[in-house]
Structure to design on (884 residues):
């Protein structure tokens, strides 16, 4: 029985039982960024089971494309694969265990004719209901039914739907194992092959681990098509079935080798067959080779297949040829393969050619590394080296395009392990040094490249961005850091010139658009757009997936949400400009602006500061015009007619003969080439953040609109509410209450200052009593408590007022660091004692420096533990200064 027959019989069986055939979903999960690829038939059913979406039918049947990455490195043996088809029947709150298990048994034994004595069901130990159905309803001998602890599905996370499952195993025969320790359903022996799994979503698990029955119970079953075909065809392995052999035989013919003769040849052919199947379906579902996520998965399997082909002697590109067999084999069920055959072949050929150019050199580098490691090991008396350094594995990745798993596979063949941690560290270092956008990569080159852009473009860019967010365009030119190029590959920063574009190039204060550019073979993430000349647009981005070539058609699409935010802010600047002139007078003019998605900045001429009352009036006018929802019109006109008609032109701005006039009905009229809303009501709230001077006669307002303004106002409201509750007053009384508190605080501070003075006065007497006589001079060197250097100075001033003649050295610790203050009376300065000299020498003890005037000096240090020692040495320093 062919694989196609098995597939057809499964679908027909469940259609006869009232199931609706649902097409396979894409390998790229829909609206689920947490999952890399589709790995099971249940994924597209999950929203139905959770009640988030209405199912297409209560009973459904699918043949789902699946891709699992966990076994990529194992592919090549007889049992592992990455891409496969999963047969499944599903019930959304309709039938349950009895019907599902009975139909599974009926299909396997009656429709396919598998002997019942070779099928072994399993159940969860707590699922007595399923055991009873197998034994009493279906009639399977109880000795044939095993209880396995892992027959339980879910929940995904600590809570959610879950329930028991029941698997069906096929006994391949005693030739595959007789050891009772392993040869049983669920054991490690290859004798028992899991064929089908019936999952019963029966319970809802709470955070405490308790389970309650679901109000609606569901069935999710899954059966690998390739495994079932393996049973039906009596094949030794997955790769011996017709679904794989058609592909394997084509690859073998291209390489002029035979399958089933040499183990290494068989391994290479199996890798080519599986990886070509997987890559063909991935590309058909929109995945292109790249360096991250699913794009990197595709690159890994393509390059692994290329290396396997080279081992068979296939030096020329061959993957597109093998992919043609895959397309012919499966296109009737998956028409996207035929629809995108040209794209599949181009992407595979390009990736194969690109990797092929470095593969030979990379293998040579690897072999020289192995030889060097072996030589070093021999010198140490070791028979073989153990570890390939991570930085060398990274060099193979960075210079020769070797995915890490390919290096690991090569190393394993030579008895080596790879230092994965070292590889990841080198990769992280590279990402840190190369982090930045394409805009930053080309920033320093732009000024000297205008002639290059003009020559590459050949003509002006046709801008469609006033009315369109996406265009069908042609890639006129590609430019990298060195100059014009024919193509750019994944990971490469590039500048792109299109014949037409929806992207607005930065000009007139409005920032450039971001978005994406997709060709048949590549995806470019555009992170900046600018205009080297008024009629030429350059798009800067990084090739995210695949490759792009000059001369090819492309779909250009801007980030619509970001553009909408920019449009709101740009129209708001026009409203603000007019409001400023209404409030401050017609002598106020625009002096510059920045229109970005998150904020707007508007510079204007004014000799006087804007009062709070004027600022309130300006904001009120702008918001009133927004609420009026005035029409915003644009039209082209001659410069003379536009100015004569009352349009405002910016002083110093260069305009052509034809200009664009933006009119806010009955309010504002300006010359402007930027993008705007259609009605002012689209702007939403307008909120001024700040106003201040930026230059002589020039002031600046920064503001936000739309969602940004709403977020700001909500945050302010929350802060006001919290403050009101804390002060126990309504929010409207918060300002008055805060002012009253400030008054109380000022009064308390005055009282505290008075009390500190009294305390300090008392301390002065105590400190003066500590003064000692040195050669007839009073010297006070004491450690004191002070909250700040200013407090230390105030204490020193009080002591000086009470000490007519003498030397004062005070020390304290502020924020963990020692400080010194030295004061010397005028008569002692005349005798050669200077405060700066004293404090400078004392500071050396606390690992510090200081200085100042002869009568007053300060020092700071690092070692607070030596402060007392520094003060103890003051007497000696003074005695030496007095000549004693």
């Amino acid at each position: 029985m062919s694989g196609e027959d098995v597939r057809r019989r499964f679908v027909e069986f469940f259609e006869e039982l009232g199931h609706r055939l649902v097409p396979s979903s894409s390998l790229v999960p829909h609206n689920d960024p947490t999952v890399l690829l589709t790995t099971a038939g249940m994924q597209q059913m999950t929203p139905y089971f959770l009640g988030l979406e209405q199912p297409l039918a209560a009973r459904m049947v699918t043949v789902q494309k699946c891709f699992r990455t966990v076994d990529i490195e194992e592919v090549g043996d007889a049992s592992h694969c990455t891409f496969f088809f999963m047969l499944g029947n599903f019930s959304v709150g309709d039938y349950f265990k009895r019907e599902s298990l009975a139909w599974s048994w009926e299909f396997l034994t009656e429709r396919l004719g598998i002997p019942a004595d070779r099928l072994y069901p399993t159940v969860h130990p707590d699922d007595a209901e399923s055991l009873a159905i197998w034994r009493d309803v279906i009639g399977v001998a109880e000795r044939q039914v095993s209880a396995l602890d892992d027959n339980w599905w879910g929940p995904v996370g600590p809570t959610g739907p879950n329930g028991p499952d029941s698997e069906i195993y096929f006994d391949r025969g005693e030739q595959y194992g007789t050891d009772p320790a392993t040869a049983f359903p669920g054991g490690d022996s290859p004798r028992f092959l899991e064929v089908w799994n019936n999952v019963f979503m029966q319970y809802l698990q709470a955070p405490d681990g308790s389970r309650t029955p679901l109000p609606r119970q569901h069935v999710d079953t899954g059966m690998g098509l390739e495994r079932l075909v393996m049973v039906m065809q009596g094949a030794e392995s997955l790769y011996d079935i017709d679904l794989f052999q058609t592909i394997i035989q084509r690859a073998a013919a291209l390489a002029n080798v035979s399958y089933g003769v040499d183990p290494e040849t068989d391994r290479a052919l199996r890798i080519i067959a599986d990886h070509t199947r997987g890559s063909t379906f991935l590309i058909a579902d929109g995945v292109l080779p790249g360096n991250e996520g699913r794009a990197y998965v595709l690159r890994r399997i393509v390059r692994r297949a290329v290396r396997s082909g080279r081992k068979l002697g296939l030096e020329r590109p061959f993957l597109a040829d093998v992919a043609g067999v895959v397309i012919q084999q499966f296109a009737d069920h998956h028409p996207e393969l035929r629809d995108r055959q040209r794209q599949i072949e181009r992407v595979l050929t390009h990736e194969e050619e690109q990797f092929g150019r470095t593969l030979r050199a990379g293998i040579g580098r690897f072999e020289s590394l192995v030889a060097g490691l072996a030589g070093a090991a021999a010198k140490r008396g070791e028979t073989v080296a153990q570890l390939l350094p991570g930085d060398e594995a990274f060099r193979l990745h960075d210079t020769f395009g070797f995915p890490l798993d390919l290096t690991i596979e090569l190393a394993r063949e030579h008895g080596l392990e790879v230092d994965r941690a070292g590889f990841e560290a080198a990769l992280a270092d590279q990402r840190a040094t190369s982090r930045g956008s394409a805009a930053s990569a080309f920033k320093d080159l732009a000024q000297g490249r205008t002639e290059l852009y003009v020559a590459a473009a050949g003509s002006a860019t046709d801008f469609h961005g006033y009315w369109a967010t996406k265009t069908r365009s042609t890639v006129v030119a590609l430019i990298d850091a060195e100059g014009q190029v024919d193509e750019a590959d994944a990971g490469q920063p590039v500048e792109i010139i299109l014949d037409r574009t929806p992207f607005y190039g930065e000009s007139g204060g409005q920032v450039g658009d971001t978005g994406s550019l997709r060709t048949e073979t590549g995806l470019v993430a555009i992170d900046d757009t600018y205009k080297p000349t008024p009629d030429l647009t350059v798009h800067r981005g990084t090739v995210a997936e695949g490759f792009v070539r000059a001369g090819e058609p492309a779909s250009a699409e801007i980030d619509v949400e970001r553009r909408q935010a920019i449009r709101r802010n740009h129209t708001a600047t026009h409203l603000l400009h007019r409001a400023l002139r209404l409030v401050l007078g017609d002598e106020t003019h625009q002096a510059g602006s920045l229109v970005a998605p998150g904020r707007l900045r508007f510079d204007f001429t004014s000799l006087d500061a804007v009062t709070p009352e004027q600022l309130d009036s300006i904001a009120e006018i702008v918001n009133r015009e927004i609420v009026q929802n005035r029409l915003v019109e644009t039209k082209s006109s001659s410069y003379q007619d536009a100015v004569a008609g009352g349009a405002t032109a910016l002083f110093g701005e260069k305009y052509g003969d034809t200009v664009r006039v933006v009119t806010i009905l009955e309010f504002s009229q300006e010359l402007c080439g930027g993008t705007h809303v259609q009605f002012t009501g689209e702007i939403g709230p307008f909120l001024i953040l700040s106003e201040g001077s930026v230059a002589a006669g020039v002031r600046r307002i920064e503001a936000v609109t739309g969602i940004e303004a709403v977020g700001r106002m909500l945050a302010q409201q929350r802060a006001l509410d919290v403050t009101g509750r804390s002060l126990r007053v309504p929010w409207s009384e918060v300002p008055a209450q805060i002012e009253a508190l400030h008054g109380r605080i000022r009064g308390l501070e005055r009282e505290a200052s008075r009390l500190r003075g009294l305390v300090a006065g008392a301390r002065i007497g105590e400190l003066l009593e500590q003064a000692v006589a040195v050669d007839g001079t009073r010297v006070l060197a004491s450690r004191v408590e002070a909250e700040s250097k200013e407090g230390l100075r105030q204490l020193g001033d009080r002591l000086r007022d009470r000490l007519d003649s003498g030397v004062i050295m005070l020390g304290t610790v502020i924020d963990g660091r020692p400080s010194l203050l030295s004061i010397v009376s005028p008569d002692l300065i005349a005798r050669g004692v200077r405060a700066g000299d004293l404090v400078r020498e004392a500071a050396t003890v606390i690992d510090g420096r200081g200085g100042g005037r002869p009568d007053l000096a300060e020092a700071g240090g690092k070692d607070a533990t030596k402060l007392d020692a520094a003060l103890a040495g003051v007497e000696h320093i003074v005695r030496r200064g007095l000549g004693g």
In short: Residues 729-769 form one domain. The CA atoms of residues 213 and 846 lie 74 Å apart. The mean pLDDT is 90.
